[in-house]
Each structure stands twice: as structure tokens, then as C-alpha cells.
Amino acid sequence: MSRKTLIPIGPYHPLQEEPELFKLYCDGEIVTDIKWETGYNHRGIEKLSESKSYDQVFFLVERICGICSTSHPFAFANAVEEIAGIEITDRTKYIRSIIGELERIHSHLLWVGLAGHFLGYNTVFMWAWKYREPVLDLFEMITGNRNSYAMFKVGGVRRDIENSNIPAIRKEMSVMRKKLDLLTGAVMDDPVIHARTKGVGILTRQDILDYGAVGPTARASGVDIDVRRDDPYAAYPLVNWKVITARAGDVFAKLEVRLLEMYESVSIIEQCIDALEKMKEGDIALKINEIPAGIGTGRAEAPRGEVFHFVVSDGSNSPARHKIRAPSYTNIATFKKSCIGQTIADATISLAAVDPCYCCTERMAAVYDNSSGKKILNANELIELSMKRTAELRKSGARHE
Amino acid sequence: MGFKDYCFRKSLWVFHFGGASCNNCDIEILDCLTPRHDLERFGILLVGSIRHADVLLVNGSINRRDKDRLLELYHQAPKPLLVVAIGACGCTGGIFAEGYTFAGPVDKIIPVDAYIPGCPPTPEAIIAGIVKLAGKK
Q1: To the nearest 10°, the Cα dihedral for A153, A158, A163, A167?
Q2: Cβ of B65 and A40 within 8 Å?
Q3: CA distance A32 to A160
Q4: Which residues pair with B115 in a beta bridge?
């Protein structure tokens, strides 16, 4: 006889480093439904952003998420530069791309490690995180901090990559390629990893299109999207690289896409530093006097997918409205497809496979009724509406007859 | 040797509570356990339940939703318990202190024994903080 059970994962679960709550509804060992609850990580960043000057917002948006702490400033810079009509210098473009790609390497390594940990394969976890350390050292050398680099500003970057630093980056990249060979070889040939990830958590091409998933999650299901190519920014149109895709859509395909993407990142960084060496040092920022009134949108390809920033400027010193959409916001919804019908043990890795990032996701969202197009109000708003109505009635002096 | 020193003289087991953070401190805490720093060689182990823990690591600003859960975890923990606030947000609220969901830095909610500032603190700083705390007589 089967019994229906509810298995909660979280909100403070040792498996996750972030607070979120998953409710797995199970029939025996099979997951029949999944629900998730967020809000443990909401910090009100969009509102805070309206109280900060354009220079300060960069420090705020890079603290949306510590792992992809370049992609948010990247998208914000793209948005503000669109409002002001700024064309950044070539040197800035290359530096921005180098930081973005270094971040992709460290983020993907982090994910490979965590995926290994979720599979009970702690060797992969330790191994990948050991390889991640030299990337963080490079960050410390270039920007002065291991995470949260504070590199971006409107019209440029804050620090230059000096020519004296380039040999160290080049050396690390050639070493990184060998390390990736080792890691990829070991992970791709491992029969246990094959058994645990192949055919698990499959997302078809149609699922991806239905849910609007982005990034490696979409590319692993054969949807060929990448903002770096589709909406070129920074130095990506200036260097040679290709978008990695796979067809299977299972966890293994996502692993494959991420591992191969790291090679592309290494290649992009190498081309960028080659170009940097030929340029004059120090030409890294334009002088920006004011941001005119206007609307700007900025996109950037984070390690997890497309980051989208929408900025409204009223010509003052700080944004009038700042809307952020992070990739995990759409990727998390695919759990409904990937986890249902699987065993509980496989659900864990399916949840981890999209590399969900909850601190990115925790934005306020308004829900609209699909059929009528009306906004669905939450409890507080309903109370407010009711209070308003009472006040109106009182003012008009209406009486119950 | 007091009772507290007696409890904390050997392997410290830690429980990690990530509040409304940006994930950086969480990652740096995990980083302490990986090969370069390898805290486990000192017997410092990340445990899954607060009921097994000697140390509660709290990072991130605490929002209104986290606050009650942090209090509950504190009450569930066996005493004596060391509480460490990690990162700028854990110590003061940091950049999120002006946010509308902010419910006070950690020390407004539960007593804190040590503060490790930084955004994020490096793994070395976290290790130094824990070692100082363990060696406190």
C-alpha cells in the first residue's frame, strides 16, 4: 500500500547554503507534486536602489548574489549606458569581459562541486573547489577582493588590468585548461555519475520554451540562446567563441554544457588579454557628468542565464525605478517538469541541476490574472483598498439608509 | 577551567544559518571546509542539525521572515552555544540595513559571542575568528 507523504526540504537545510523551502509531495518514493516557498532572502533591493546614487547602485546590485556578482553590475551598466547613450572604450570592454568570464569559470566549478556533493560524490566537490581557488586568487590580484569585485561603474571600470598582471593570468589559464581536461575526463567517464545523471530530470525543448528557462538549462535542452551572442555587449563580438548546446536535456547534458562552457571562457579570456597587451594602459573610464531622463534595459549572460535590468531615470542622481529579473526566476519554475515522477533521491540532483540561486530570485512579483489581465492583490493591499473605500465613504458623508 | 571552557575544548561542531544574504559569506564558509583551508583537520565540522552544534554561524542581514526562525533555532540549540555573526550584514546589516524587510542585525535578536566583519570575510578571517573564540579563556 502506498502512502502519501510530504517531505520538506529547508528552509535551513544542511544541503542548501541558502534559505528556501521545498515541499515534495510523495507517493511512496515517487514525487507527485512539488511546491516551493521563498521570501527568506528578500532584502528589498529594488527599493534600496532608488535611494542610492548611480555609483552606489553598483555596490548594491553586486550584492544581489555573491556568486554572479559581476553579471548584475554588467546588466545595470548596460542599462544605464543605454539611457545616457555612452559608448565605452575598447579597453573597458575587454576588461569587463575578462571579469565576466573569470566569474563564469568560478561559478561553473562551484556548481560542478555542489552537484558532486548532491550525488554523494564528495571527491568531485573537493576537487572542483580546489580548482576554483586559483580563479579567486586571480580576482584578488586584479580587483582586490575574492568576491564582490566592485569593478564596474557607469562608463567604464574602476581598476585597470595592468600589463604586469597579464603573465599571471595567462599562466593560470593554461594551467586551468589542463585542470579542466582532468576534471572533464574524470566526470564524463565515471560510470556512477552516468548512472545517476543520465535520463534524470529531463526537460524537453518544449518545456524550456513553455517555462521560458534560460542559460545552461535551456542550452542543455537544445535551445540555442545566449545573450552574449544574441544581444552583443562588451567584448563578446570582438572575440571568437561558440555557444555550447546539448540535446538530451537531462542532468548529464547540463553538466556537459557547463564543463564545455568553461573551455570557451578560458579561450575568451586568453583572446582578451592578448588584445589588452596591445593597447595603452589606463584608458578605462569615460567622464560622465549626468544621466539624462529616459528608460534603459540591460541584459547580460550570467553563469545561470540571462540577467535583465530595467532602469527608469528621471534625470536625477538615482534611478527612479529599477527592476531586476534574474535567470533563476524562470529556471526554478522548471522544477514542476523535471522533478515530478522521479524518486526522491533523483529529485535532489534535478533541483540542483538548474543551479538555482535564490538570492537572485527574491524580487517582489505582482501576479496578474491571465484571463482578465487584472492584478491579483495580496492581503495587505486588499486591506489598504478597503481602508481607502471607508475613508472615501466617510468623506462623502454616505450613510447606511 | 569553567564549564564553558570544558565544553569547547575539543572539536567544535558548527551549524550554519544563512539569513537574507548575498550568498558570498555562505560560499566562503563552505570554502573553509575545502582542500585549501580544510577546517575539518581541526575537528570543525558542519553539522545538519542545530541540536548537534556547539557553534551557530549566522550570516546575512536578518529579514522579518528569518527573525522568528533564528530565535527558534537559538532556543533549540543545546547550551552553552557560541554564536558568531559573519560578514558586514551579520554584524550590522551592511548595505541592506535600510531595507524595508530588515529586522535588525543578529545581536538585536540573539546574543552574539564574536563578530567577523568583511564583505565577505576571507576564509582566513573566518578561521582566525573561530580560533580566537575557541581559545578565549
Answers
A1: -80
A2: yes
A3: 53
A4: B85
Does domain A42-335 bear CATH number 3.30.1490.480? no
Spans in chain A with pLDDT lower than 70: 1-2, 14-15, 364-370, 372-380, 382, 397-401
Interface test with B, best of A41, A130, A131, A359 (most B CBs within 10 A): A41
User: How far is A214 from A223, CA to CA, in rounded Å?
Assistant: 9
Find the CB nearest A48 among B20, B65, B99: B99
Three cell numbers, residue A332: 526554478
| Closest to B119 (Cα-Cα) out of B24, B53, B42, B14 | B24
Residue of A nearest to B99 (CA): A44
Give the tens place of pLDDT for each residue, B104-125: 899 999 999 999 999 899 999 9
A130–B22 C-beta distance less than 8 A: no
Q: Regarding beta strands A4-9 and A21-27, do their DSSP bridges make them parallel or antiparallel, or are they unpaired?
A: antiparallel
Q: What is the pTM of this model?
A: 0.90
Strand partners, A305: A302
Question: A residues 112-171 near B, CB within 8 Å?
Answer: 113, 125-126, 129-130, 133, 146-148
Which domains does chain B show, CATH number per domain? Answer: 3-135 (3.40.50.12280)
Sheet holding A30-37, edge to edge: A4-9, A21-27, A30-37
Torsional class of B94: left (φ above 0), alpha (ψ -120 to 50), beta (otherwise): left
A236 CB near a chain B CB, below 8 Å? no
